[in-house]
Amino acid sequence: MASTGNVSNVHPLFDLNVIGEGLVFTDSLPELDAALTTHRAAVIQAPPGTGKTTLVPPAVANHLARTGDSSGTGTDAGTPPGRIIVTQPRRVAARAAAHRLTQLTGTKLGDYIGYTVRGDSHTSAATIIEFVTPGILVRRLLADPMADGTAAIILDEVHERHLETDLLLALTGETQQVRDDLTIIAMSATVDAPTFARLLASDGTENDRVTGGAGTDLGGVEPVPHISSATALHPLTVTYAPHTGDRIGPRGVETSFLNHIATTALAAHREALAINPDTDALVFAPGAREVDHITQQLRASATDIDVLPLHGQLPAKQQDHAIRGREPGGKPRIIVSTTLAESSLTVPGVHLVIDSGLTREPRRDATRGMSGLVTVSASQASAEQRAGRAARLGPGTAIRCYSERTHAAAPAHITPEITTADLTETTLTLAAWGAPRGHNLRWINPPPAAALNDAEKTLHALNAIDSEGRITDHGRTLAAIPLNPRWAHALVDNAARYSAEDVAAVIAVATGEQRIPGANLPDAIRHQQRNPHRPTQRETHRLTRLAHKHAGAGEGAGEAPEHANAAELAGIVTATAWPDRIAKHMGEGVYLLASGTRAALPPDATFGRPEWLAIADVTRAHGHAAAGTGAIIRAAAPLTTAEATEAAGNLAGATTRITITPNGTISARSIEAIGAIELRATPTKPNPAQAAEALAEHLTSHGLNALTFNTNATALRNRLAFLHHHIGDPWPAMDEHHLAASVTEWLGPELNDVAHGASLNSIDLTEPLRRLLPWPEAANLDELAPARMTLPSGNTAAIKYPDASEYGDGDGVSDDAVSEGETSAEETSAEEISTAQTQAESPQPVVAAKLQETFGWTETPRLAGGRAPVLFHLLSPAGRPLAVTSDLHSFFTGPYADVRAEMRGRYPKHPWPEDPLTAQPTHLTNRKLREK
Fold first, then answer.
1. Buried b (16+ CB within 10 A) or exposed e, 73-104
2. What is the DSSP letter of 416?
3. Residue 147 φ/ψ, nearest 5 degrees
4. Strand 226-228 with 120-122, pairing
5. What is the pLDDT of residues 392-444, one digit of tens each?
6. How far apart are CA 785 and CA 681, in angstroms?
7. 635-676, pLDDT tens digit by residue?
8. 382: Cβ–Cβ under 8 A, 6 or more apart, which residues?
9. For residue 559, is pLDDT > 50?
């Protein structure tokens, strides 16, 4: 393993010359060594195939061995001060990287180089480099936030933006702040690398946190070293072979499209073999189901070709066999893979790639309360990664089974999972870390607030966090189990009452990637149990061990286990995990979920139409298959009414449900329900408190349309809104949001009548609104916002105030109000308030008056203590509009002359003086003025 041929002057642990032979990244090793000499972090950008995954871990080990033990624990020179942990986004990639490095170093797996993935580990006390999946490292950090015994953490393939990798960037960043001897390296295959370089330079404070992806300005924070490597690609030819029909239909990827992929792959591979008999092909499909379909089609058509599937549900031996090169004298190979082979694996012999252009991405549907994997178009960046697989080892060809137009319309980059996925597990991890909601952690994209809110509601219902978002003891138990917290809760809760192995078998099948035939979860469990080589056997054993370890934390601990067949437990276990997905049959195969969502059984459902279901998987769908509900049930198990009620927990109970009828009365029913599912309902009378709460909710969601504002109430509301806008407190806001929130304050007495059957439409809201008047300021209402204005003629005119809705949400004082620190309008003359302040863009009170009645007004009247000028609609003697102005002086000394010239001939009986500023204001004609 050792050699002197290295940048180190100390005998190195690993011979990088041997390991890096033929790898492009070898040229970047001196730059990496220099970066690690001056910094605790670095970012490496190297395209697939350059050898970064193979070379960087031993190079880091050599560097740390040469520089000695900076932690002061007395480690001998020539040995790293701790283990080098390398994350790979997929288990097969972690295993493959470890195997590859042991081959190149001539060592035994589990000695100097090892790996740990879910359910499988090969390490020892001597292990220096360990490849792990991100989830493994997350749980290690939760158990040991200081990462004792770890000298460096290398996060590979960060550009793929998996949720757990983003989370690790945040967690390791905080660990590094208290571990000045911990080295962090992020490795990326794309140009996003500069963003990660800035992120690793930040300390997580508000001033320098990356939150906008590539190109975000960190306000002067100097990035950590960014090491780039040249591409290793050989010449690549990209062609298009589009399908004539749709790729995705109402029930998922169209079978005709999958057949097109298989046909295209076989024809292209035979053509390539005629030129180069050593050519193997790699076909990309979005998911395990599509991989299996294409594999079957190819095997049926080509017995002379070795067709190998590659996806996450396969046993490790099958995965490893698929990514190994062709055996000497072996058949040509076609590997049909999910995105698993997109960037983190090099499959020997591949010179041809066939791309479906589709991928699976997590999506959270907040409206329907659903989360899951959705088939979407792969990004352009992913398409480039896939095509590049063909040219890693020599000239290659990539065929895209879609059009150039479709490729151009695809998103440019991968969608970060953190922006679209369900965050329940992430939120629990953050609570266990001691950073609820991820506060003060550094993020490329911070977790969306709405997704965090939904996750916290779920975790609080599971008793995993308290009302402040802090983790509970039960939450720590769930965080220690590598499962979605809902399923982890179901595991520990039910394993305390039933056979742990049976409970584990249910969860293993329900959480697998394979689609459940006929949506029948119990049948799928029976089928797995009859299969001695069932794919879920390893997962069942793993979950059983976890259940035995943690079941004591579940409710009912200490009770004798009840033995039941796993298939019979499917409904109970599923309902415990997803009580909001307990569903009742509403007819025609449509079910109402406790969450309020409707979903339909698929046409091929095989368990009839049971009254109650516990739904393990439900996804969005359109068309006939979803029976118009917008969602289709993919996996479920029948329940009895008693089981549904028990599993529902807090969702089951009695409540009073109140509605506002179209005629304005309040209708109440006493409901026994499971969430949105009504079991029994009887009419009842609401009390005033219930009526107030119901009305407040109705006003918040539907606005004030449930109330009838007569002329007087509308005028008062508008006057108060005007004062709040221009003066602010203590004058109350009159917008819908504030009135709905304070309904019990101003409408309380009337609600008692409504609770006893009176209609909301019969209430005169004028007096209730007066209850909101501030005292003693209310005495100034008629001075600050009078209902009528006295004109110079002696007559009065009504003041029309802007509608309350025109002011927006009612918060704050308008921009044209006197600013804080200035003298108030009551203490200044109108001349001292600048025109810029008074000519407000906000709505103005309006007075309509005949022009002659305003003669002598040298300045425009102002309301709200001088803050707001009145907008005058000046009328002709016949009441027709002549001019609109909020500056009477400017009007009378300017445009009035043109109005006078035009109107004096039309209305000769009325006065049109040359100087209206000194003329007598009047509503009379010239004749009556003379008679007077």
1. eebeeeebbbbbbbbbbbbbbbbbbbbbbbeb
2. P
3. 55, 50
4. unpaired
5. 888 999 999 999 999 999 998 888 999 989 999 999 999 999 999 998 898 98
6. 50
7. 999 999 999 999 998 888 888 888 877 777 788 888 889 988
8. 339, 342, 359, 414
9. no
Q: Single out the residue of 352, 413, 354 nearest to residue 381, CA to CA.
A: 413
For residue 772, the tally of other CB atoms under 10 A from its CB is 20
The Cα 719–Cα 881 span in angstroms is 25
Side-chain-side CA neighbours of 583 within 13 Å: the count stands at: 31
**Predicted pLDDT of residue 140:** 95
Taking a C-beta distance cutoff of 8 angstroms, is the pair 727, 810 a contact?
no
| 355-378: burial string, b at 16+ Cβ within 10 Å, e else | bbbbbbbbbbbeebbbbbbbbbbb
Q: Across 786-866, where does the E strand assignment appear?
A: 788-790, 796-800, 846-850, 862-863
φ and ψ of 871, to 5 deg: -95, 115
Give the whole-angstrom CA distance, residue 57 versus residue 130. 9
Dihedral sign for Cα atoms in the order 289, 292, 296, 298: positive
For 872-905, the pLDDT digits (tens) are 999 999 999 999 999 999 999 999 999 999 999 8
pLDDT at 3 over 70: no
Give 678's DSSP letter: E
Q: How many residues does the structure list for the chain? A: 932
- The sign one gets for the Cα dihedral 157, 159, 163, 166 is positive
Contact 389, 448 (CB under 8 A): no
Q: Are 177 and 145 in contact (CB under 8 A)?
A: no
The dihedral sign for the CA sequence 184, 185, 191, 197: positive
Element (H, E) at 326: none
The fraction of the chain above a pLDDT of 70, given in percent, is 88
Mean pLDDT for the stretch of residues 676-687: 86
- Best-predicted range by mean pLDDT among 18-22, 306-310, 696-700? 306-310
Tokens 């979920």 locate to 593
User: Token digits for 837?
Assistant: 């302040």
Neighbours of 804 (CB within 10 A): 25
